[in-house]
Amino acid sequence: MLDKIKALLLQSGLKQTAQPFPERDVAAVALLLEAASADGSYGEAEHLTLCELVARKMVLAPDRAAALLDAARARQNQAVELFRFTDAVNRAMDEGERAALVEMLWEVVYADGVLDAFEDRLIRSVAALLHVPDRTRAEARRRVLARKADGEN
């Protein structure tokens, strides 16, 4: 019965929506969005970096990456704390994936070329909630800075 209703709706022009994204991906991108706006501004540099990172690291077509960003932004706007996101990431990602996420956070905050105290504090907090050791967090930061230096020279 439901299949018949669904088929009728599709025939009448209602498009089938894409499958929802895994909770771990939405949570990870929500954390990236938090980092992008931690300094009080969300500019073009942060937006472009976010779009590129999500598409490249999560192996998504640009339109799917944009849809994931939209889904994460909607979830982020409903959240009152970060635990919801870090908990989802901790349950679904291994240590290496969580460390890679911290490196992505550094890429986002350095997108505008400046590390704000709020951004630094956010990454320290998120890394702690993700059980990423301080040394791993610092190494990720150094790698991002080295890539930025190589790209600017």
Describe this structure in a few short sentences:
It is built from 8 helices and no strands. The protein is mainly α and 153 residues long. It is globular and about 35 Å long.
Describe the protein.
There is one protein chain. The chain is mainly alpha-helical and 153 residues long. It has helices at 2-11, 23-37, 44-57, 62-78, 83-92, 95-109, 117-129, 134-152. The protein is built from eight helices and no strands. The longest helix has 19 residues, at 134-152. The protein is globular and about 35 Å long. The protein starts with a helix and ends with a helix. The model is unreliable at 12-17 (pLDDT under 50).
Q: How big is the Rg? A: 18 Å
Oligomer: single chain
CATH fold annotation: TerB-like
Number of helices: 8
Number of domains: 1
Supply the CATH superfamily name. Answer: TerB-like
CATH architecture: Orthogonal Bundle
Query: Major sheet, described briefly?
Result: none
Stretches where pLDDT is under 50 for at least 5 consecutive residues are: 12-17
